[in-house]
Write a structure and sequence with these properties.
mainly alpha, Sodium/glucose cotransporter, 18 helices, globular
C-alpha cells in the first residue's frame, strides 16, 4: 500500500476535470452581479449541497476524525444546534432578505440602519473570514503534504493558486455546482475508507470498535453539570445553544453562506436549502466521527506521538495515503482536494464580493460600470487569495485541531454580527448609532471573554449576541426617553 503513481494521476486528472466543469457552469459573466450572484436561479438542492461542502468539507474530512480519535462522539451535540440555528435563520432572516434586491448579506444592514453599519459589518466579516479560512487552507494542505512529500508552505501555495484560477473562471455559479458534486464524492470517499477499515480488521466491525467502546468513545450525550460546566465545550446545553447561535451567525450573517442562499432567488427555495443542509450536516459529522473511532481501533489506540505524527489532524490523511489500496487512495484524495478547493474558491469569492459590493460600489456611484465592476472583482479576487496564503502560513504551528481553531475564530466576531442583524429584525426603535455601539461593545466584551478563557468556545457566539443586543436595546430605550 501507499500513494502510487496511479493515485497521483487520478488526483491530477480529477482536479483538471472538475475545474473545467466549474468554468463551464459559470458561463460568461458580463457584470459583477453575474460574477458574484449567478445569472439565473440555481436549484435549491444544489445550493443545499453547496452549503454543506462550503462549511465543512476540509475541516470535517481532516479534523473531525482526529477529534473523535482523541475524545468521543460528544461533538454531535453541537450539530443538533446547527440544525436548530438554520431553522431560525430560515424563518427570521430570509423573509427580510427577500424584501428588496440584495447583493450581499450586509446590504440588509444598510437598508435597515445605514451605510456605516453595512461597511463596518463587511469589514468585520472580511477580517474574520481571512483568519478562519487561513485555517481551512492550512487544513487542506495537510493531505497534499503527505501526497506530494512537500513542506506545508509549498502545499499551501499550490492550493491557493489552483483555487484562484478556479474562482476567476467560474464565478459563484461554477463554485456552487462543483460544491454540490464534491459533497457527494467526498462523503462517498469517507464511506469507502470506513469500509476498508472494517474489512481489513480480522474481527470486522465488532473487533475494530471494541477498543473504542471500552474507552468510552461511543458516548454521545454529556450533560456536563458540574464545576467545569462553562469551560467544557461539548455538553448538551453548550452544544445546542452554542451550535444554534453559531449556525444562526454563519448561515444568516456570513457572506460565504448567504451568497449561496441569495443565488436561489426565492425565500421558499432558500429555506429548503438551509434546513436541508442542517439535516445532512448531522449525518455527515456522525460519519466522520465514526471514521475516527475506526481509526482508533485500527491503530490500537496509539497516541499521536506514538504514531510519529505532530497532531491528530494528520491521522486520517496518513491512513488515506498509507493504508488504502492503490487507486482507492487517489479517488478519496481527489474528492477531498476538489471539495476543499471549491470551498476555498467560495471563500475568496465571498470576500471579493463583500469588498466590491459593500465597500467600493456604494462609494463609486455612477463611476461603477458593469465592465469596470467585473474587472475590479477579478483583481480583488487575486488580492484575497494572496492574503489567504499569508493567513494559512501564520496558523501552521498551532497545536489545536483545525476544526476547533476555525470555529473559535468564527465565534470571536459572529456574536457581534448576529446581534446586529437581530437588532435590525426584532427591535424597530434601534438606530444606526445604537447598532454600531452594540456591535463594537459586543466585540470588546468577546475580546475580554476570550482573553481570560472564561468559557469554552461554544459559548462565544451566544455571549456576543446577548451583549450586542442588550447594548443596542438599552441605547434605543434611552433615545426614546430623550425624545419624549
Amino acid at each position: 500500500m501507499g500513494f502510487s503513481t496511479l493515485d497521483t494521476v487520478i488526483v491530477l486528472l480529477y482536479l483538471a476535470a472538475i475545474a473545467i466543469f466549474g468554468a463551464l457552469q459559470g458561463g460568461k459573466q458580463r457584470s459583477a452581479n453575474d460574477y458574484f450572484l449567478g445569472k439565473d436561479s440555481i436549484p435549491w438542492w444544489v445550493v443545499c449541497f453547496s452549503i454543506v461542502a462550503a462549511e465543512t468539507s476540509t475541516l470535517t474530512f481532516i479534523s473531525i476524525p482526529g477529534l473523535a480519535y482523541l475524545t468521543n462522539l460528544n461533538f454531535l451535540q453541537v450539530t443538533l444546534g446547527y440544525l436548530l440555528g438554520r431553522i431560525a435563520v430560515s424563518y427570521l432572516f430570509l423573509p427580510a432578505y427577500a424584501t428588496g434586491e440584495l447583493s450581499t448579506a450586509y446590504a440588509f444592514l444598510e437598508r435597515r440602519f445605514g451605510s456605516k453599519t453595512r461597511s463596518f459589518a463587511s469589514i468585520v466579516f472580511l477580517f474574520t473570514r481571512i483568519a478562519a479560512d487561513g485555517v481551512r487552507l492550512f487544513a487542506t494542505a495537510i493531505p497534499l503534504k503527505f501526497v506530494l512529500g512537500v513542506e506545508y508552505p509549498v502545499a499551501i501555495i499550490i492550493l491557493a493558486v489552483v483555487a484562484l484560477a478556479y474562482t476567476s473562471m467560474g464565478g459563484v455559479r461554477g463554485v456552487i455546482w462543483v460544491d454540490a458534486i464534491q459533497m457527494v464524492i467526498y462523503l462517498g470517499g469517507a464511506i469507502l475508507a470506513g469500509t476498508v477499515l472494517i474489512g481489513s480488521h480480522e474481527g470486522g466491525w465488532a473487533g475494530i470498535t471494541q477498543l473504542a467502546r471500552d474507552a468510552g468513545k461511543f458516548d454521545f450525550l454529556h450533560l456536563g453539570f458540574g464545576p467545569d460546566f462553562w469551560t467544557t465545550p461539548y455538553t448538551l446545553i453548550a452544544g445546542i445553544l452554542g451550535g444554534g447561535f453559531l449556525s444562526m451567525a454563519s448561515h444568516g450573517t456570513d457572506q460565504l453562506i448567504v451568497q449561496r442562499v441569495l443565488a436561489t432567488k426565492s425565500v421558499r427555495a432558500g429555506r429548503k436549502a438551509l434546513i436541508g443542509s442542517g439535516v445532512i450536516i448531522i449525518v455527515q459529522f456522525a460519519l466522520f466521527l465514526l471514521v475516527g473511532l475506526l481509526l482508533y481501533g485500527h491503530y490500537g489506540g496509539a497516541s499521536v506521538a506514538e504514531l510519529g505524527l505532530t497532531k491528530a489532524d494528520e491521522i486520517f490523511p496518513r491512513f488515506i495515503v498509507e493504508g488504502l489500496p492503490s487507486g482507492v487512495s487517489g479517488i478519496i484524495v481527489a474528492g477531498l482536494m476538489a471539495a476543499a478547493l471549491s470551498t476555498l474558491a467560495g471563500s475568496i469569492s465571498s470576500m471579493a464580493s463583500s469588498t466590491v459590493m459593500d465597500l467600493y460600489k456604494p462609494r463609486a456611484g455612477a463611476a461603477f460600470t458593469e465592465e469596470k465592476g467585473l474587472r475590479l472583482s477579478r483583481l480583488v479576487t487575486v488580492l484575497w487569495a494572496a492574503l489567504l496564503v499569508i493567513s494559512a502560513l501564520f496558523f501552521m504551528n498551532t497545536g489545536q485541531t483545525v476544526v476547533e481553531l476555525a470555529l473559535s475564530i468564527a465565534s470571536f466576531t459572529y456574536g457581534g454580527l448576529l446581534g446586529t442583524f437581530l437588532l435590525g429584525v426584532l427591535i424597530k426603535r434601534s438606530t444606526q448609532e445604537d447598532a454600531l455601539a452594540g456591535f463594537v461593545g459586543g466585540i470588546l466584551i468577546m475580546v475580554t471573554v476570550i482573553s481570560l478563557h472564561i468559557v469554552a468556545w461554544t459559548w462565544y457566539t451566544l455571549i456576543g449576541v446577548l451583549a450586542t443586543v442588550f447594548i443596542g436595546w438599552v441605547l434605543g430605550m434611552l433615545n426614546v426617553g430623550k425624545k419624549q
